[in-house]
Specification:
Strands 5-4-6-13-7 form a 5-stranded mixed sheet, with helices on both faces. The chain has a 5-stranded mixed sheet with strand order 10-9-11-8-12, with helices on one face. Helix 1 packs across helix 10. The relative contact order is 0.17. The N terminus is likely disordered. It is an alpha/beta fold. The protein has 3 domains: 31 residues, no CATH class; 203 residues, D-Maltodextrin-Binding Protein, domain 2 (3-Layer(aba) Sandwich), CATH 3.40.190; 96 residues, D-Maltodextrin-Binding Protein, domain 2.
């Protein structure tokens, strides 16, 4: 009979059978303890947030020692408020939310800027096309209010107009009133309403698309933000979260069809063809400008200088905020280049 010896060291038991060594893990499971992080989206799970969904479903967060809970949002839930209150750790939002928060003494920080442009566009049917914003005086305009109108206010001011010079109609999240000519101009996002309008037959010269960047009024959209307190107390976890998240977005660029399949599997209520169009539009917002050379999530101080000016001039904030205080690039700079660089084979 072979003699057996058992040596126990920590979580590992070394069993010696004859002259052979065998390692056996002790305890009911060898599963490592994962650090929990909650991520609040700013809408339902869809291709707009594909990178985070991919990172969770493909185990990128787990590989970084994290268990990330992706939480949906809706029109009545404000991520900047839930993060400020500590009920969410990190959230996806728009830069104006962080600037507004800081103007009110809430220490929010942007940790990665995914979209390198505003997602908003302002559209008119071809029959209502304009050569100058001045032609909108007295006409009905569909806008999202509650702060989302800041861009358009800044655009109007470039031609000496104010919001009171147009007839503002608070619009919901449907394109039907615009299609029915209830207002001549509608505020849309490039990854949602604009696609729906184009699919309704308004493509090419049948639709005039006005980007806020042409008026130096663009407020860059989707970014990741948290609080100064969370960064200080969970610096390593936040850096690992960024690494996995950007790797998820990289996967979306290099495998867009598979990424859409993953998103639809996560939220079966979505339609695959619609999500393909949405992801294409989203990737176009992410991979542009200096992000192409400096990497996914690059934060440009000029983004926040513009957004701060637009918010102050439109009356959304009453006190100035220093653009340098809006973002913290220390974590992003430590993300490995392999996670934020796109290969030459990327297709979208």
């Amino acid at each position: 009979m072979q003699r057996k010896h058992l040596i126990i060291a920590g979580a590992v038991a070394v069993v010696i059978v004859g002259g052979t060594f065998w390692l056996r893990l002790r305890g009911p499971s060898a599963e490592p303890t994962l650090e929990k992080i909650s991520l609040r989206l700013q809408w339902i799970p869809q291709a707009q947030f594909a990178g985070y969904i991919v990172a969770e479903r493909l185990g990128y967060y787990r590989q970084q020692g994290l268990q990330v809970e992706i939480r949906p949002a809706g029109p009545d839930l404000k991520p900047q408020m839930t993060v400020a209150a500590g009920t969410d750790d990190i959230a996806v939002g728009v830069s104006n939310q962080v600037i507004s928060g800081r103007s009110n003494g809430v220490p929010l920080k942007i940790i990665a800027q995914l979209f390198q442009d505003s997602a908003n566009r302002y559209v008119l049917k071809g029959k209502n096309a304009i050569r100058s914003l001045k032609e909108l005086r007295g006409k009905k305009i569909g806008l999202w209010l509650g702060g989302d109108e800041a861009e358009f206010v800044a655009m109007l001011r470039t031609v000496g107009m104010e919001l009171k010079d147009v007839d503002v109609v608070p619009q919901g999240f449907t394109i039907i009133p615009f299609l029915q000519d209830q207002y001549v101009l509608s505020q849309v996002t490039v990854y949602n309403e604009l696609i729906q309008i184009q699919d309704a037959g308004y493509g090419g010269d049948k639709l005039q698309i006005v980007p806020p960047d042409e008026y130096k009024a663009a407020i860059v959209s989707d970014m990741l933000f948290t609080t100064e307190k969370f960064i200080k107390e969970h610096k390593s976890a936040t850096q690992r979260f960024l690494t996995a998240s950007l790797l998820g977005w990289k996967y979306c660029f290099e495998n867009p069809e598979k990424a859409v399949d993953i998103v639809v599997a996560h939220n079966p209520e979505l339609k695959k063809d619609e999500q393909q169009k949405q992801l294409r539009a989203v990737l176009g917002l992410i991979w542009k400008g200096q992000a192409v050379t400096k990497g996914l999530g690059y934060m440009d101080i000029e983004f926040y200088s513009t957004a701060e000016r637009v918010l102050f001039e439109s009356g959304q904030i009453r006190s100035h905020v220093k653009p340098n205080d809006v973002f913290d690039e220390s974590l992003w700079t430590t993300v490995p280049d392999a996670s934020k660089r796109i290969s030459g084979t990327a297709r979208f």
